[in-house]
Amino acid sequence: MVIKKICCIGAGYVGGPTCSVMALKCPHITVTVVDKSKDRIAQWNSDKLPIYEPGLDEVVAECRGRNLFFSTDIETAIKEADLIFISVNTPTKTFGNGKGRAADLKYVEGAARMIAEMASGDKIVVEKSTVPVRAAESILNILRANNKPGVSYQILSNPEFLAEGTAIDDLLKADRVLIGGEDTPEGHAAVEKLCWVYEHWISRCNIITTNTWSSELSKLAANAFLAQRISSINSLSAVCEATGADISEVARAVGLDSRIGSKFLQASVGFGGSCFQKDILNLVYICECLNLPEVAAYWQQVIDMNEYQKSRFSAKVIESLFNTVSDKQITILGFAFKKDTGDTRESPAIHVATTLLDEGAKLHIYDPKVEPSQIIDDLTHLSVTEEPENVKNSVTIHSDPYAATMGTHAIILCTEWDEFVMLDYERIYKGMMKPAHIFDGRKILDHDRLIKIGFQVQTIGKRLARPLLTRMWGSPHQA
Ligand code: NAI
């Protein structure tokens, strides 16, 4: 069987870009991305795609209607496909056994049941979603328990390593593609077929094949390692603030050791995104289930440190504003969890904004890509507030950063958008209440220049000249 038709279940941040690039590089393969959400599919078929990702518009424009299709007709797409990616969401469970830690596999199970119901002929089913180790076994159980005559399945694990904001580049020039499969002749044959698809643009030496469980665990491990680096540097940023060392200098000195490397050593308000926290919690849960409490505790610390960093930053803002933000006008620049994406899942900005709203602040929020309705949804979600109406009355969303800062007491920079570096801070300073504060949660601004303009500046991992009033009002342990 040669792969002629691919179906991807789940038109999200992973399914959409991954299949767009696959369609671009394999023009003779028909790629159909399906989703149960009519809205999402309608957006994929419109001029305004449902996700913002640099370079994505161009790729979709080239392939859509040629060999790339977005559809809600899941049945036909499954029936016709030789190879089916499952790329649905795998959030943390919010209730029941494993609540708050285990991955909720209900969407994966739903996709597997649809395949079982609709499939005909031989199918290669590929786990693209990030799943717990041995999830492929559960998928196979569902498929085989519902097997029909003339249908056979091979399950592969092919986790996705793209990062939002650089997804297209990451897909085009992947460091590696990982494919796990069953150690049988049929399993090897299925692995070879998926290798063949990727070999249209990825060199064979960058395609790693492993057993299924190694592949599933490698994805969790990779995210755990990445998040661990951020928590490690963030933990040291607290030491820097307490001692006068500068975390950027420390990161540079440490990162120049070729065994350590310089990437992912940027201290900040904390990591966000839909994956790091959920995947580490999942890893922790798996370790607990395997009766490996020491390993579980080790990885849990990465999450705890991230929570500490977000809380520490929010506390610093409040303390610097004379220990009260009640009725103060505060600007939040950036709401996405990182630059070049409109995704706000687990964004540190939500934590900061929620803390300030609880303390009675009035917020003015600007983000170049996040939809206003998304910001309101995030801040009024029942998991963060019991008073959604109060929140709505205390938040103004702006479409212009200058309007967002006009008349406010403080700016909190939560996302490292390039445009924030280029803003006219003299103009902003003139329009703000005095003393005008800036809290740079991403360490991207020119702090010396801001201080010269007159701002009271605070950042992560470095003591800057502190304002006189704050010294008088600040808590005694803060030198
Ligand atoms: P997403 O939430 O953006 O998209 C998932 C889509 O699946 C949704 O549009 C949903 O409607 C659809 N869906 C769910 N069940 C369905 C069903 N039975 N039939 C049809 N459609 C269904 O999720 P995202 O971010 O794309 O993540 C997908 C998976 O990829 C997750 O397991 C995630 O951990 C993993 N991943 C995500 C990365 C990211 O940067 N977002 C990076 C690498 C992996």
From TrEMBL:
<feature type="binding site">
    <location>
        <position position="164"/>
    </location>
    <ligand>
        <name>NAD(+)</name>
    </ligand>
</feature>
<feature type="binding site">
    <location>
        <begin position="129"/>
        <end position="130"/>
    </location>
    <ligand>
        <name>NAD(+)</name>
    </ligand>
</feature>
<dbReference type="GO" id="GO:0006024">
    <property type="term" value="P:glycosaminoglycan biosynthetic process"/>
</dbReference>
<dbReference type="Pfam" id="PF03720">
    <property type="entry name" value="UDPG_MGDP_dh_C"/>
</dbReference>
<dbReference type="Pfam" id="PF00984">
    <property type="entry name" value="UDPG_MGDP_dh"/>
</dbReference>
<dbReference type="InterPro" id="IPR014027">
    <property type="entry name" value="UDP-Glc/GDP-Man_DH_C"/>
</dbReference>
<comment type="function">
    <text>Involved in the biosynthesis of glycosaminoglycans; hyaluronan, chondroitin sulfate, and heparan sulfate.</text>
</comment>
<feature type="binding site">
    <location>
        <position position="40"/>
    </location>
    <ligand>
        <name>NAD(+)</name>
    </ligand>
</feature>
<feature type="binding site">
    <location>
        <position position="345"/>
    </location>
    <ligand>
        <name>NAD(+)</name>
    </ligand>
</feature>
<dbReference type="InterPro" id="IPR036220">
    <property type="entry name" value="UDP-Glc/GDP-Man_DH_C_sf"/>
</dbReference>
<feature type="domain" description="UDP-glucose/GDP-mannose dehydrogenase C-terminal">
    <location>
        <begin position="331"/>
        <end position="447"/>
    </location>
</feature>
<dbReference type="Pfam" id="PF03721">
    <property type="entry name" value="UDPG_MGDP_dh_N"/>
</dbReference>
<dbReference type="GO" id="GO:0051287">
    <property type="term" value="F:NAD binding"/>
</dbReference>
<dbReference type="GO" id="GO:0005634">
    <property type="term" value="C:nucleus"/>
</dbReference>
<comment type="similarity">
    <text>Belongs to the UDP-glucose/GDP-mannose dehydrogenase family.</text>
</comment>
<feature type="binding site">
    <location>
        <begin position="88"/>
        <end position="92"/>
    </location>
    <ligand>
        <name>NAD(+)</name>
    </ligand>
</feature>
<dbReference type="GO" id="GO:0006065">
    <property type="term" value="P:UDP-glucuronate biosynthetic process"/>
</dbReference>
<keyword id="KW-0560">Oxidoreductase</keyword>
<comment type="pathway">
    <text>Nucleotide-sugar biosynthesis; UDP-alpha-D-glucuronate biosynthesis; UDP-alpha-D-glucuronate from UDP-alpha-D-glucose: step 1/1.</text>
</comment>
<dbReference type="InterPro" id="IPR001732">
    <property type="entry name" value="UDP-Glc/GDP-Man_DH_N"/>
</dbReference>
<feature type="binding site">
    <location>
        <position position="35"/>
    </location>
    <ligand>
        <name>NAD(+)</name>
    </ligand>
</feature>
<dbReference type="GO" id="GO:0003979">
    <property type="term" value="F:UDP-glucose 6-dehydrogenase activity"/>
</dbReference>
<feature type="active site" description="Nucleophile">
    <location>
        <position position="275"/>
    </location>
</feature>
<protein>
    <recommendedName>
        <fullName>UDP-glucose 6-dehydrogenase</fullName>
        <ecNumber>1.1.1.22</ecNumber>
    </recommendedName>
</protein>
<dbReference type="InterPro" id="IPR028356">
    <property type="entry name" value="UDPglc_DH_euk"/>
</dbReference>
<dbReference type="InterPro" id="IPR036291">
    <property type="entry name" value="NAD(P)-bd_dom_sf"/>
</dbReference>
<dbReference type="InterPro" id="IPR008927">
    <property type="entry name" value="6-PGluconate_DH-like_C_sf"/>
</dbReference>
<feature type="binding site">
    <location>
        <begin position="275"/>
        <end position="278"/>
    </location>
    <ligand>
        <name>NAD(+)</name>
    </ligand>
</feature>
<keyword id="KW-0520">NAD</keyword>
<dbReference type="InterPro" id="IPR017476">
    <property type="entry name" value="UDP-Glc/GDP-Man"/>
</dbReference>
<feature type="binding site">
    <location>
        <begin position="10"/>
        <end position="15"/>
    </location>
    <ligand>
        <name>NAD(+)</name>
    </ligand>
</feature>
<dbReference type="InterPro" id="IPR014026">
    <property type="entry name" value="UDP-Glc/GDP-Man_DH_dimer"/>
</dbReference>
